[in-house]
Design brief:
72 residues, alpha+beta, 2 helices
Length: 72
C-alpha cells in the first residue's frame, strides 16, 4: 500500500495511485466551493501491507512514522 505526502497524509486503501489521489483531491465539489485545492507537489512511499496495528493508524505513533517515511 502507498502513502502520499501532499502536506496531508492520504492512505490509498483503493489503490488509486498518485494521479488518482490528485484527481480525487482536486475534483471534489466542495460545498459552496469553500476550497479549491491544486496539488503542486506529491511524494509517495510504499508502507507495506496495511493492518489495524500499522503505526499510521495510531495517533500516538503516526507522527514518528510520518517522520521516518518522509523525513519531515
Amino acid at each position: 500500500m502507498n502513502a502520499y505526502k501532499v502536506e496531508l497524509l492520504v492512505l490509498d486503501f483503493d489503490g488509486l495511485g498518485e494521479k488518482g489521489v490528485v484527481d480525487a483531491l482536486e475534483n471534489v465539489r466542495y460545498p459552496n466551493r469553500c476550497i479549491s485545492p491544486s496539488v503542486m507537489n506529491i511524494d509517495c512511499r510504499d508502507i507495506g501491507e496495511w493492518d489495524d496495528s500499522h503505526p499510521l493508524n495510531h495517533h500516538g505513533k503516526a507522527p514518528a512514522e510520518y517522520e521516518r517515511l518522509f523525513g519531515g
